[in-house]
Amino acid sequence: MDSASAELVGKINAMLYAALPIEGDVMAETRKAARAVFKAFAGPDFYPEVRTKDLTFPGPESEIPLRAYFNSEDKSQKVPLIVFYHGGGWALNGLDDYDGLLKSLSAQSGANIMSVAYRLAPEHPFPDALNDAQAALDYVIDNAADFGGDPNCVAVMGDSAGGNLAAVLAQSAENKNKLAAQFLLYPMLDVFNAHTVYPSRLAYGDGAHFLTRAAIDKSVEDYTGGDHDLDTPRISPLFTTSTDLLPPTYIMVGECDPLRDESRAYIDKLKASGVPAEMDCIPGAIHAFLSFGIMENVRGYRSQLAQQIQRRLNAS
């Protein structure tokens, strides 16, 4: 790890250990601890000029919250739109945890971003989150003008478990020719294979680099309930055979992230299939690093990601 990441992981682990033992409603307390970590290390609001608007839209079973980030509110411009799905193992985190990251990306890329509060596991197991994610994408495309956006220039983006949702949506025949690009941030792409298949999981999943192998296992258990084949592409998108459906793809992942090697495997698969695909592996970075704006180097990586968005969506 780079020195800033090592210091950060030490502080995060100290916060989490101080919260132990967790009693009573374990999931509620775990979510509270996750929110506290993201809030503590989010960093200041560098882009207060980016306006946000909270709304809801009809989902498959109930109203789904959505937060819009407006780089531009001039509806005559028709800027690119990005539908964003947050991480947290399908069970943790929410809209507030991503304000700093998404304001930064919207301000620097020229895109308006719609962040989706999909239903969380284990209360809502697969495919509830995926169904909500699809409903959100449909809603944004159908109402692109209300978001000052171009319905023909919509991308999906997600980090970690949210990257899983974004990747699955991009593979769906339902979304063929609807997406201009997909941006996957340290995505969870393979929950079927044993950890031993990926050297990065063995090297960086022991707790010294933030995300652990045990946390990955717990996330998968919460999301699937053990009732589904984990090698189906709707759960493990690495196993897709529908690469002809995919839009141009960009992945950003940390060198010291347990999920690094499955990202490499996915990029290699897409490239071999002729999909325009590119990955940046950030030296010394940990899982979820883009959310921790308190680290100065992370601000530079956010700018790097924004440039990739701008290049692929012709934003300005």
Summary, kept brief:
The protein is of the alpha/beta class and 316 residues long. The protein has helices at 3-18, 26-40, 99-109, 128-142, 161-171, 199-204, 213-224, 260-272, 296-313, and strands at 51-58, 63-70, 79-85, 112-116, 149-159, 179-185, 249-254, 277-282. 37% of the residues lie in helices and 18% in strands.
Structure, described:
The structure is a single chain. The protein has helices at 3-18, 26-40, 99-109, 128-142, 161-171, 199-204, 213-224, 260-272, 296-313; strands spanning 51-58, 63-70, 79-85, 112-116, 149-159, 179-185, 249-254, 277-282. Helix 3 packs across helix 9 and helix 4 crosses helix 5 (161-171). The model has no long low-confidence stretch (mean pLDDT 95). With 316 residues, the protein is an alpha/beta fold. The chain has an eight-stranded mixed sheet with strand order 1-2-4-3-5-6-7-8, sandwiched between helices. It has a single domain, classed as Alpha/Beta hydrolase fold, catalytic domain (Rossmann fold, 3-Layer(aba) Sandwich). It is built from nine helices and eight strands.
Tertiary shape: globular
The low-confidence runs, each spanning 5 or more residues with pLDDT under 50, are none
At the first level of CATH, the class is Alpha Beta
Order of helices and strands, N to C?
HHEEEHEHEHEHHEHEH
Structural class: alpha/beta
- Compute the average pLDDT: 95
Q: What share of residues is helical?
A: 25-40%
Give Rg in angstroms: 18 Å
What portion of residues belong to β-strands?
A: 15-25%
Largest sheet: 8 strands, mixed
Number of helices: 9
Note the gap between the termini.
Answer: 34 Å
The assigned CATH architecture is: 3-Layer(aba) Sandwich
Give me the side-by-side strand order of the main sheet: 1-2-4-3-5-6-7-8
